[in-house]
Amino acid sequence: MATETTGETAEEPTPGCTDDLAYDVFARDCPSRDALRHITDKWGSLTLGALLDGTFRFNELRRRVAGVSEKMLAQTLHALERDGLVHREAQQTNPPRVDYALTPLGDQVARQLRLLIDLVEDRMPQVMQAREDYDAQHTTG
After folding, report:
1. Measured between alpha carbons, how far is residue 80 from residues 33, 61, 75, 96, 115 in Å?
2. Residues 86, 44 contacting (CB under 8 angstroms)
3. Rounded alpha-carbon distances, angstroms, from residue 123 to 48, 98, 116
4. What is the pLDDT of residues 49-99, one digit of tens each?
């Protein structure tokens, strides 16, 4: 039930966003949106895709995901670890060693993501042609 508070309407929690109901990514306040964002943003998807190839140290992963800054990779790994998709293992060696790998859940998600990545790469000639066609039709002369 909605209640009036300082001119705004306070709504009950959106269905699909509580422990006893199914999650619904289309619901405004559903936490599944954050998880989806972490997985599908540029650095999240590239990081998950790279980790399908195995376990990496931070700098190895940074080289594999060309263009990502140290700060952004650290933030991405933290979010993916919090979501249960990436496992971080710090080894007490000198110098310290930290390895990153996919969890079983992360592996499932990354395999689905890899299918999408492969599809996009395979269809890039069509995408490039569509871009050319679009640009030709929308060029102002």
Report:
1. 13, 14, 9, 22, 19
2. no
3. 21, 36, 11
4. 999 999 999 999 999 999 999 999 999 999 999 999 999 999 888 888 999
**Torsional class of 54: left (φ above 0), alpha (ψ -120 to 50), beta (otherwise):** left
**Size (the chain), residues:** 141
Residue with tokens 């569509």: 130
47, 76 in Cβ contact below 8 A? yes
Tokens of 135: 């640009």
* Cβ-contact 97, 83 below 8 angstroms: no
Token pair 């705004």 in the structure block, residue: 8
Instruction: Report CA torsion sign: 132, 121, 113, 47.
Output: negative
Record the tokens describing residue 76, joined without a space: 């991405």
Residue 1 has pLDDT above 50, yes or no: no
Query: Cβ distance 51 to 110 under 8 Å?
Result: yes
Rounded CA gap, 33 and 40, in Å? Answer: 10
> Nearest Cα to 97, choosing from 51, 47, 46, 60?
60
Q: What is the pLDDT of residue 21?
A: 64
